[in-house]
Design brief:
Shape: globular
CATH architecture: 3-Layer(aba) Sandwich
Pfam families: Redoxin (PF08534)
Protein name: Thioredoxin peroxidase
GO molecular function: thioredoxin peroxidase activity
Helix content: 25-40%
CATH superfamily: Glutaredoxin
Strand content: 15-25%
Family: Belongs to the peroxiredoxin family. Prx5 subfamily.
Function: Thiol-specific peroxidase that catalyzes the reduction of hydrogen peroxide and organic hydroperoxides to water and alcohols, respectively. Plays a role in cell protection against oxidative stress by detoxifying peroxides.
């Protein structure tokens, strides 16, 4: 269990669960089919912002954290970010519904599931009490971590919010 830090390589075996957005399953009550998303492979030659939340549809996550990234998406893209992804321990169906509830009708932000907080635990950033993913942010540039920080105050976005990550680019 090693915390990722700037200069580290992104692990080579990271696979999340994901439901790609499709128009035919675009309604919030429609379910798509979960697929494995091999982040290590997909992100090897891209600039990626990955932010993690304790849970979809929870207060800080829904009112502040995700909306900050939605609002700043054009600025992130202007800084060369290819992929913006949000991660939570929720299952892929909940993550897909959270994306639809926030009117993300494409893959401009990926809603990824970290079942059992496996990835977050592997980097030491899962909440020890609840077992959920922690609130953190990573920037991965062509396989190298260039920014990595976790919130230590409940409900804080000082280290993982969109504005902080944008300033780090």
């Amino acid at each position: 269990m090693t915390t990722l830090k700037p200069g580290d390589s992104f692990p080579s075996d990271v696979v999340f669960s994901y439901i790609p957005y499709t128009e035919e399953s675009g309604d919030i009550t429609s379910c798509g089919i979960p697929v494995n998303y091999n982040a290590s492979k997909e992100w090897a030659d891209k600039k990626v912002v990955l932010f993690s939340v304790p849970g979809a549809f929870t207060p800080t996550c829904s009112v502040s954290h995700l909306p900050g990234y939605i609002k700043n998406l054009p600025q992130l893209k202007a800084k060369g970010v290819d992929v913006v992804a949000v991660l939570a321990f929720n299952d892929p169906f909940v993550m897909s519904a959270w994306g639809k509830a926030n009117k993300i009708t494409d893959d401009s932000i990926l809603f990824l599931s970290d079942p059992d907080a496996k990835f977050s635990k592997s980097i030491g950033w899962a909440d020890p009490a609840s077992g959920r993913t922690g609130r953190y942010a990573l920037v991965i540039d062509h396989g190298k971590v260039t920014y990595a920080d976790i919130e230590t105050e409940r409900g804080s976005l000082k280290k993982s919010g969109a504005e902080t990550v944008l300033a780090s680019l």
